[in-house]
Amino acid sequence: MDMEIINFLNLVFLAPFVEMVSYPIFFSEVIISGLLTGVMYSLVALGFVLIFKASGVFNFAQGAMVLFAALTLVGLMEHGFPIWAALISTIIVLIALAFVVERFMLRYLINQEDIILFMATIGLTFLIQGFGETIWGSNVKPLDLGIPSESFEVGGLLLNEFDLFAAGSGAILVAVLAVFFHYTRIGRALRAVADDHQAAMAVGIPLKNIWIIVWSVAGFVGLVAGIMWGAKSGVQFSLSLIALKALPVLILGGFTSVPGAIVGGLIIGVGEKIAEIYWGPLVGGAIENWFAYVLALAFLLFRPQGLFGERIIERV
Amino acid sequence: MFYRETGQFKSSYKADQAIFPLSQDRWFILFLIIIAFLVIPLTASEYLLQAVMIPLLIFSLASIGLNLLVGYAGQLSLGTGGFMAVGAYMTYKLTTAFPEINIIIVFILAGLISACVGLLFGIPSLRIKGFYLAVATLASQFFLVWMFNKVAWFYNYNSSGTITAPPRELFGITVTGPTATAETRYIVVLAIVCVFALIAKNLVRGRLGRSWMAVRDMDIAAEIIGIRPFQTKLIAFSISSFYCGLAGALMVFLWLGSAETEAFSINESFYVLFMIIIGGLGSILGSFLGATFIVCVPILLTNAPQLFGLSMPIDLQKHIEIMLFGFLIVFFLIVEPHGLARLWQIAKEKLRLWPFPY
Amino acid sequence: MNETAAPSNEETNKNGSSDLEKNTTFETLLEVHNISLSFGGVHALDEVSFDIRKGEIRAIIGPNGAGKSSMLNVINGFYHPQKGSITYKGNERKKMSPQVAASQGIARTFQNIALFRGMTTLDNIMTGRNLKMKKGIFWQMLHWGPARNEEIHHREIAEHVIDFLEIEPIRKTPVGRLPYGLQKRVELGRALAAQPDLLLLDEPMAGMNVEEKEDMCRFIIDVNEEFGTTIALIEHDMGVVMDLSDRVVVLNYGKKIADGTPDFVRADQGVVDAYLGVSEK
Questions:
Q1: Which has the closest alpha carbon to A73: A133, A131, A143?
Q2: pLDDT digits (tens, 9 = 90+) for A175-214
Q3: CB contact under 8 A, A109 and B333
Q4: Which of A7, A99, B62, C231 could form a disulfide with B247 if both were Cys (CB 3.0 to 4.6 A apart)?
Q5: CB pairs under 8 A between B and C
Q6: Which CATH number is A24-148+157-302 given?
Q7: What is the domain partition of chain A in residue ranges?
Q8: A165 vs A147: CA distance, rounded Å
Q9: Does residue B188 carry a pLDDT above 60?
Q10: Is there a domain that residue C182 lies in?
């Protein structure tokens, strides 16, 4: 009896760590793999953060927009468009999408409570997803970007060119966005709008245009994320499940923080991978399905506003 | 002209508080009940019962459950599918382990277990609100589904991972399993749903319902006047999970006959959420209307093209269905955030004045 | 043992604070002693002490940001002071909790109306009865017998409040649709429904026109005289304060600068400098 308990405790609390330490190279590879996945999560989360910062709307449809962007790109390429033309067309489509969303949906929901806006974006998700699938079909589509995906060794670690390229692009994009927000006039306007729509309107900030800009930027970020994901594992509807995965990232990082989205994404990416590789076999695998959420939940219990978020003080 | 209140004075608070204060409403409901219990089982086709009436009722029950939590108590939850799974799997385990227990009792027990699980996952609501709480409920959704998938004990170690409803009887008539007729299953579901809808209505018009709505509208003020927000929220989670669990059990045992965890995925959670948004948050009637709507739209989409002599490929149907739902959600939230239930109310008000315009 | 007599102006003492205890004994319902409250670096309240006698109408006045609402929040337990104590009905506490305050008969209204917007007037007022309703969930599910009788009993009380405040026509209207003045009245109704011993009113007349103010004054006086409810009232309208209140506390920058009858306070130089300005007679 006692042996079973000891064995159990050993399996859960000791053996995995021993394994991590005894095979450090493999462990590093796991971490790197997690970081790379994490970058993807960060990109998607970033899209959420941008829209939330600017319009106070938690745009659940971000995932669907990623999907739609990727599908458009792939679809156009399938029809013979060269990659550059396809990319530009897709960006135009995204901007048009942002415009339509603002004109026909957001404008009417300005004064509603958050929960209604959130549910509206859930509806938007389904709308975009259905629309995208109607046009392009719902099969998995391969996406060949012409980026090399050879693996090579660095100091004994096995790395993949493609993953590095994706991570690099993500990092650059994030850096550009961070600068944009803090140092440009438009960035400032965006932050003003995020704080208070009515006040921003009162000082003359054109709400409508700001929203279009933001949703376009978010769409673009989504496009990059979608391309990266899609090139890796094919473009299919489960991409919108990634939107759900971004939620734990946002919880960790806070809904309004760009660095938070990055750090959160990395933490979740690494955490998931480690949990899956080292503890997964104990319980039959697929821990990745829920680990991120449970981690976020645990986090929420101790720090409801996330790592970087703002503490909300409620006044009566 | 016909639907007027004049002359109907209430001389006691008891009468004023009745669910259907107007006598026209009472007659209407009586009429509906007669149709539901007598006419439909005798005249409806098996297809109508199996594809429309039974799922409509079951999802109404789930919608009521979610509505109590989201519409009345204001706690956003995306974990409906998970709790339905708890009800279904626990019913399976209980009835396979104790086949002699009356199946209705088993349903109720499974619902209670579901309520306990809901209570557990509701604990975070002490500190977390709004979207954050929704994410916490996602944890319950994904975890529960994973658990019922991986832990073979839940499906009695069978190789396919599906749970199948064994035959069970009520008053000597087989109600579950392959030999149970659609009519019998329909009547059982109808009876259960009627009872629990009544219970839900009683809860929301009493002290508990008001506490929920107070916490929903302004929990700080609620706390200051002495309502305990945490307890109130926990009760909401438990009762809501009971209803969802019961609905899940009915789904497997009285409708589908068997199921895998796929049937309880995040998509189910979204569907039930759509039902209550379209039907009307904070309204028991709305739960019924929303469920009816969402259940019927795919049926219409399947059958309508044939009426026009066209045919639509299945996956195109599915895509259009998804688009339509999404569109309707956005549409309702913009035009009438209180859903079909409010439209119904407006219609009744217009009817009161008919034939006058105002 | 103690007599609750309404204090009259003739008994005002000439120096410093009004020490009425010498002549007549009053029962103290609530006393706050050396309350200090700060948020981060901001000192909302700085060693404030005063008492409220049973049956009186006590006004708390002062410029904006003086700490008046914070004081009320401390009294009913929404904020917890860093220092000092609260003595209510003879029990001394370092801090109050909302549950205890509510169950011991403290009710309040809020500066920015805190009604439950999704519910009707009647339901809002019924929530005021929440603490007094005892029947458990099981009976509520059946809505029969004990639960129903309890519901009806409390409905009667709520209806008395509705009659008293003359808001019968809007009984079934969702409060979100009511005009501001009526919302304030409903909020008062919700507080009254709890049949409180101490009623805290945070700027009950704010934003009202003359007629509405007069109605509200009438209600406040009626509540005090008919039901004997003790009232603590934050108010900016000096006319209202002078007419209604028995005694006044003046706060400025979190400190108490005067405490006494309305006439006494009005004449105090410190109060004039800080808040009132030169008084025209």
A1: A143
A2: 777 777 777 777 777 777 767 767 777 888 777 777 777 7
A3: yes
A4: B62
A5: 98
A6: 1.10.3470
A7: 24-148+157-302
A8: 8
A9: yes
A10: no
